[in-house]
Specification:
The complex is a heterodimer of chains A (about 120) and B (about 110). Chain A is an all-beta fold and about 120 residues long. Helices cover about 0% and strands about 45% of the residues of chain A. In chain A, strands 2, 4, 5, 6, 9, 10 and 11 form a 7-stranded mixed sheet that branches. In chain A, strands 1-3-8-7 form a 4-stranded antiparallel sheet, with no helix packed on it. In chain A, a hairpin with a 2-residue loop joins β5 and β6. Chain A starts with a strand and ends with a strand. Chain B has about 110 residues and is mainly beta. Chain B is globular and about 40 Å long.
């Protein structure tokens, strides 16, 4: 079966442009995560969806970042007025079960997409 | 902010040798996972070890966890050129929701 896919794989934007990054999770997966991975760093959490509900957006770096998952499957991460510090790989991951926010939870394996490499000039 | 710190940052070995990577973390955890990331690809989950476990094996992988020292190690035995990748540890907090917190990773190069 298909894994998590992301598009585009590469995006070059001029500073100030808006960009939209797409994630297609594994069919039937309830949970969807977005991460930002700067060069030479590990992924850093941005936001989490359970179905169509955005339950945690604590990692979004500014109000220029916006994510949605309107039908509980495909998700889009939008960055408005891009800046050079937004250059990074944006990773999407999905998992089958919900993550039990706010209480001890067992691990639900996350399946990662290949990422979108965003370069802001 | 990064929770785990992998050590070394880079490791270069010959095929057939063993590779050991270490991860230290700061806060109490529920579990710890190791991931592999090949160049230009997403992360692949390798193994999870829970806070009440001390050692776990999966094929050529051996993971240990010492919660008293807040550290974990990943051993890859009989390495292959295909093991060349970056390896990350990620911790699941014992205090609340499971959002994994990743370290900066160890870059492993296995020379054929």
């Amino acid at each position: 079966g298909a894994g998590v896919s992301q598009s585009p794989r590469y995006k070059v934007a001029k500073r100030g442009q808006d960009v939209a990054l797409r994630c297609d999770p594994i069919s039937g997966h309830v949970s969807l995560f977005w991460y930002q991975q700067a060069l030479g760093q590990g992924p850093e959490f941005l936001t989490y969806f359970q179905n169509e509900a955005q339950l945690d957006k604590s990692g979004l770096p500014s109000d220029r970042f916006f994510a949605e998952r309107p039908e509980g499957s495909v998700s889009t991460l939008k960055i408005q007025r891009t800046q050079q510090e937004d250059s990074a790989v944006y990773l999407c991951a999905s998992s089958l079960s919900p993550t039990a926010l706010g209480r001890r939870s067992s691990y639900n394996e996350q399946f990662f997409g290949p990422g979108t490499r965003l370069t802001v000039l | 902010s990064q929770q785990g710190e992998e050590d070394p940052q880079a490791l270069s070995i010959q095929e057939g040798e063993n590779a050991t990577m270490n991860c230290s973390y700061k806060t109490s955890i529920n579990n710890l996972q190791w991931y592999r990331q090949n160049s230009g690809r997403g992360l692949v989950h390798l193994i999870l070890i829970r806070s009440n476990e001390r050692e776990k094996h999966s094929g050529r992988l051996r993971v240990t966890l010492d919660t008293s020292k807040k550290s974990s190690s990943l051993l890859i035995t009989a390495s292959r050129a295909a093991d060349t990748a970056s390896y990350f540890c990620a911790t699941g907090s014992s205090g609340g929701s499971y959002i994994p917190t990743f370290g900066r990773g160890t870059s492993l190069i296995v020379h054929p």
